[in-house]
Amino acid sequence: MPLENPVLTAIRERRSIRRYSADSVSREEIEAILEAGRWAPSGLNHQAWRFLVLRPDDPRRDALAGLTKYAHILEGAKALVCVFLDRSGMYHPMKDHQGAGACLQNMLLAAHSLGLGAVWIGEIVNQEPRVTEALGLNPADLELQAVVALGRPDQKGSADRKPLAQLLLEDIP
Questions:
Q1: Are 53 and 125 within 8 A, CB to CB?
Q2: Taking the model in full, what pTM does it have?
Q3: What pLDDT is stored for residue 2 in this prediction?
Q4: At what angle do helices 93-113 and 6-13 cross, to 10 degrees?
């Protein structure tokens, strides 16, 4: 039986949610999610991540949706959080990308803890320079990491995981 505590439970229960109800997401909820991202670990504490929040009435959302095969998810979300790395704040590509991943995971767990649904859209990075330009940002300054779609869940998520034994390179001593 796994150890039980609120953090481990949240990690096991969080799911990628791709469909959202018509109910809005408050500014306070978005700020709480961004704060969770802000507190992620980063190499040398550089915190090179930068956020751009888009609400449903922002015309840039249409341009963004046109750059991914997951347009329907972006269009249905009540908020989008675009996560970038500030190129001038980066000091080591692998460590900075790992930090961005930790930032994204913190935000997903925060959304779950607030009763919101969220999904990390990574496929959109295939269009990274076009996304940055469509948002009116300079691609020389910022490197897109992902877009997080947020809303009140209108679905149950599902996820299967491989048994831990299949992931271990050696038995735990």
A1: no
A2: 0.94
A3: 67
A4: 100
